[in-house]
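pasting for the record
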Amino acid sequence: MTTLVDMQGIEKRFPGVHALKSVNFELESSEVHALMGENGAGKSTLMKILSGIYKKDGGSLRVFGEEWELDGPRAAQDLGIGIIHQELSLMNELTVAQNVFIGREPRKMFGRLDEAALNRDTAKIFKSMNLMLDPRTVVGELTIAKQQMVEIAKALSYKSRILIMDEPTAALNDAEIAELFEIIRQLKSDGVGIIYISHKMDELKQIADRVTVMRDGAYVGTVQAADTEVSQIIAMMVGREVSNETVEVPDLSEAEVVLEVTNFNRGREIQDVSFSVKKGEILGFAGLMGAGRTEVARAIFGADPRESGEVRVHGTPCAISKPADAVRAGIGYLSEDRKHFGLATGMDVSTNVALASLDRLTSPVGVLREDEIRSTAQEYIQKLGIRTPSERQEVRLLSGGNQQKVVIAKWLYRDCDILIFDEPTRGIDVGAKAEIYKLLKKLASEGRAIIVISSELPEIMRLSHRIAVMCEGRLTGILPGGEETTQEDIMHLATLRKPAMQPGGQIQ
């Protein structure tokens, strides 16, 4: 094998932050090299140096055996380095081929677009990937998985021999992940070196050859994926062992019922769903994609309408038709898409903590009480262990786990005693997950009623005192938490489809 990338002693500083501290990284041809670390470990900064977005402050960068100082992303592309970001950068209204060669389209005489050559060149790339896809297809009509393939083809159109993949499976299901892994294996057999960034530990054994771990901006070590236990990699990432203890289910037989949902309906998405949550309880919601879990949560919060059903809070019926009604009733909702629906990422931590309570933080003449907002933010930074230089730091600069804590702080300051967490650890590394789990358990022990929606069964089983399971809009059962319930029990209810009816009312 040939060494494609050799980074030694890489340094990078930003104002007030030593982001990379003498980091080493190597990539061989025909290798999938996983780059692991908690959010904020420095992975993205290192890859931005390799892809020409940032300039290094120290150390050496050799590509294909030669020392380089990359002047920008175009220089890296010309050198054969392609990066596929977690947020895809395709134009949905254009065809696949137009996206692959955007800005570099083949032209005929007088500058006219050569559509046939464009489609032919794209088809050649797809053939090299063993990918069956029509170059004339409009990107907006493709699944996320297929769009991911188009991004790979776009990178290969620059004749990339080095591919950086950032969380490539974050939005894919199991079948789509298997398809992506086949493409990666094909690229590997063609001599391409792939740097693979992911928080999904189970993927390492399937796809990675080596694993390099970073922590707090520093290089921790490189290990062979096949010979290393996942627990060892986790310990390298967080600097400690991460516990996988099962949940301890408290005795809530005498606890007050804080939230009751009765006969919720909305078309096929929500079909006659009823449940309750007690003070101090964590109720987990499990189910396959499209089961209706998020739809139920959004309907409770008033973000989406419902056709029928009742919500009671502390035994009193609540008319909730919009989120403001839910907030007044003491319900907080942490969306699965925190960046779009939970945070104002361009604003600072203190503003975000205050967002749901501005009515309480405004003087009678309409002026915000800035000192109180700052002191409140400082209180929750300390209480929740939010890692930030100060309350004035922009939220977009925080790691995923710390952003999630800011959202939690927002609802705690509003004094919500019912909290709905939708995919609370999506895009969060394993160490930050453990911190979020600890925080959720603490909130429950303080008497808050908590609903947790998660696609990760181990997460549901680790957190939930009871587990509500949905399938195709229906609540198919509620299971006890703790060791009584297995993943097989949950999956049985998650696949318990309603029998189809034949004409005449006969069950098939």
